[in-house]
Give the backbone structure.
Amino acid sequence: MSPQEVLRAGWCLAADIRPVGEGLIHDSYLVRGEGDPLVLQRVNGRVFRDTDLLMENVARVSAHLFGKQRAWAPSLVPSAAGADFARVDGEVWRLWTYLPGAGALTSVENDRHAHVAGTGFGRTYRWLQDLEGPRLEDSIPGFLQLGHYLDEFDGCRGAPADLAAAVDARRPLAERFRERTGYIHGDCRIEHLVLDEAGNAAGVLDLDTVMWGNWAWEFGDLIRSMSGDRPHPSRFEAAARGYVYEAGISATAEDLVLAPRYTTYMLGVRFLTDHLRGDIYFKTAGRGENLERGAAQFRLVEAMESMEREMTARARSLLAEIR
């Protein structure tokens, strides 16, 4: 069934629809009709096996963040049946409000961008901590837990020798950040941060992986996502200053330096494992793309390792300044 037909069946709406975004998981469509724009999404049931649990989590988190600041996160548009989603032809679809503002942060070009990103996700972390009700169950079992992904990798065969060696050399990272410390956004990539007209943080997107986890899992991914091929120490420092100050976390300089290495290595393991399994998780344009993605993450880990001394010095400086 086409997205237009889903919109009519689930929400009794007719509008112009076009694909939007380049997400690796869901299919998303921008909906333009008589009112404000909306975003229609088809939930990837291969990734989120328990879609009822996923949507219960998302609805709770969206409402909670709305209570902190209006439009800090998108809100679900009730279906014609009054539910938070519509099940059409066996697939789960949901309709979101479209966050106002100047759009998502697509790249980090300077220290100010980095500080804004750290501030936005740090604030989200702080606002999530008093989420009421029973603790959220993980929408994806094992998500962001390095030991889990290493176990999955170990169940596969056929990894290129150089990448297998890169995995083995860094296995001790799995012993870091094992403890869960609080609620995290869980997917702090820069493209999930919305800016206002002045270029300040105005909201966050993608609530699917909000979970009880460790702040380092998401802070590390923030630094990874803004690093490109090579980390920028001054931008790392700016992002860390914004995140630590807003989140109110207790972190050491070593924590701040190792967190990006943990998540970058973990993502490399995930890409490599998905390649070995036949590309069943991440969307790809063709065979071999996940293999190259994994190799790129391992190269980034090496670059982070080469800058450890400078990044540690900057982390110590900013922590002394904040405290």
